[in-house]
Predict the structure.
Amino acid sequence: MTSVPTTAAAARQPAMRRLRLSPTLTKYIARQYLFWFGSFYFAIVAIIYLATIVDLLDRLATKDVSLAVTLKMAFLKLPYLSQEVMPFTILFAAMATFWRLTRSHELVVARAAGVSVWQFLLPVLGSSVVIGMLAVSALNPLASILLSRYERLEASYIRNQQSMLAVSETGLWLRQADDRGQSVIHAERVKPGSVSLQQVMVFRYAAQDRFVDRIDAREAQLQSGRWLLFDAWLSRPGEVSQFHERMELPTDLTVDKIQESFAPPETIAFWALPRFIELMQAAGFSATPHRLQFHRLLAVPMLFAAMVLLAATFSLRPQRRGRVGVVILAGMLTGFLLYFLSNFVFAIGLSGTIPVVLAAWTPAGVSLMLGVAMLLHLEDG
């Protein structure tokens, strides 16, 4: 009576063993993939660095900027550019790994031993997800800091402008300058849908930062060439404060200049984005680009996993069907097509046509489902 279940259990044991991937094979595949990833990554980064130097030399040709500053600017921008091309690095590294293992018939032997395509994909998928998590949690904060410094140098040497706006927990701060001196404007919040500041304080300074007066107003509306202040109190040192129902403050600020002064989402670290989004929304400004950037970074590990599945689709079986170059080229073109479609979806998300979360996660989700579907169609498991 007891021999039947014992025999059945014994029959199931080889099948259960076949479902487990050998630790030795796992380490071997992961090591091969990481080698190719490192090789492609450093090669692409070196090419990007040289291309950035050439581009900056062209842009700074008419400026009085030394070569050392140019090299520094290229270096500061390099981490940001390197993380932008990392999905292609994942794709190329995975294709090279699978193509080499297929060419050497190592995957054929593994399949003959009972290892399915999903099992030997696990080391590469796991490595890619870990790389994605490290890119978001470690590389992105570093790239954001360095890119912020690059933006300041670019604004100084190329665009000849300085940042005029800052958002903090105390509200919004603006700085403007004219022939008479400069003014520092503080507002607790911005009226949604317009550049109308609420609960405004204006500190005006003459030459050599000499304090002139202070204006406290209920509201300040930005109009052509002026700020229109309502219910304003003008205070000067040693004088009695004066009340004005309406006051005008000259300015050269425009809506476009104010928008351009916001910190770009790429210059804010992943860990600081949620707090910055809260501050933007509390101040009355739209935080759509920053929310899109935050969810886009969250989707990076999924996107890297999708790149691995697409690489497997185009590189696991080229030797059996021939035309290796055509198949690999098709994989690369698919990766570039997904990249451009991703940028298109992100642009739609920035315009507010579709929700930010949908715009950020759609490229990674669609790529992942496409890779799984193609593998299920082409492979026997």
The CA atoms of residues 6 and 12 lie 10 Å apart. The first strand starts at residue 165 and ends at 168. The first helix runs from residue 3 to 18.
